[in-house]
From TrEMBL:
Annotated keywords: Cytoplasm, Flavoprotein, FMN, Isomerase, Isoprene biosynthesis, Magnesium, Metal-binding, NADP
Highest rank taxon of the organism: Archaea
Enzyme class per UniProt: isomerase
The protein, known as: Isopentenyl-diphosphate delta-isomerase
Coiled coil: none
HAMAP family assigned: Idi_2
Binding-site residues for FMN, renumbered to this chain: 62-64, 92, 121, 191, 222, 268-270, 289-290
Species: Vulcanisaeta moutnovskia (strain 768-28)
Sequence intervals crossing the membrane: none
Gene name of the record: fni
GO BP annotations, alphabetical order: isoprenoid biosynthetic process
Amino acid sequence: MIENRKDDHIRIASEQNVEEGNNLFNEVHFIHIALPEIDFDEVNTSITIFNKKLSFPFIIGAMTGGTETAEKINTTLAKCAEEFNIGMYVGSQRIAIVKPETARSFRIVAENAPTALKIANLGAPQVSRLDEKILVDWVSQAIDMINADAIAIHLNPAQEVFQPEGEPWFRGVIDKLRFIKKIANRPLIVKEVGNGISMEVARILASRVNPDAIDVAGIGGTSFIRIESIRAGAIDEANVFSGWGIPTAIAICEVRNVYDGVIIASGGIRSGLDGAKAMAIGANAFSMSRPLLLAALKGFDETKKFIGKLLREFKIAMFLTGSRNVNELNNAPVVFGQTIISWLGQRNVSCKHVSASK
Ligand SMILES: Cc1cc2nc3c(=O)[nH]c(=O)nc-3n(C[C@H](O)[C@H](O)[C@H](O)COP(=O)(O)O)c2cc1C
């Protein structure tokens, strides 16, 4: 049952070791500015994205919905999104469309976060099999359910192929994405789920779909290869593919090399400092999932504390790089370590910071 799978994901992601790889933010170094010429309080962390002003460029990651536990998690996360004036993705809403009795677990996001940036979510393999008429209905249901400001479609071939009841159906996805972009009447975000978006994929998306944003969701955090293999009792197979994917810091550079739209950085981002680094190498916002699941399971106060800490870390990174606003952070100089330099060189990816630091 689809509900059991949703609860399995929450249980396994919260109780087991499901993170792997290195997102390579340890190889992105800021230059410390000893003379910032601003007061800490003057640092302006706000941004405007998808026509919404956020207090800082943070979006709660796409996780769940469809069960009682998921409803509690979504309520806590939505309350925090509203309180901090940040963004929030919901998990895949297919469950609520095929089982409308579960839609409440998503609707409560709109109730608890009426003004926050809210992002609807559907999976590419599922939409690939729908005819256009039904797809219009699914997209409008997903958007209306949470009064969404944008819609995300996730690309998750690794998850589907390791999932016991997986649907690794990717033929025709490009055309369906282009169709969704046409009919959604909202910004379209194309995201991965933790194995990363490459330059090749970003180039196809840019030329054939023209999404408003790409969320790179690289490797270095939650691994759905691990989660699904644990569910399948086939952890050996997961070990063979351990580390499969594009490290998040690299994915940002690869995508930015060929795509001018909004980039959301995610995949193993674990601090406001990681988020600030992502912003300095090409991202416009950052997102985090599993740590917020762990916090939300502990309750509202714990989640609020966690996001407050994240905001403070982000603001400190801005202050210490002398960035008065996010635009200045986007231009803050960084130095890359050898793995990143080598990767970008082999891939012929130019990054302004590489040439600046050479
Ligand atoms: C329990 C759980 C459920 C998830 N479900 C979805 C989903 O329904 N749709 C989606 O686009 N991503 C989903 N993701 C993937 C996250 O959005 C994110 O891409 C991934 O976890 C990497 O970020 P992290 O390392 O910060 O956790 C889920 C993640 C977790 C931990």
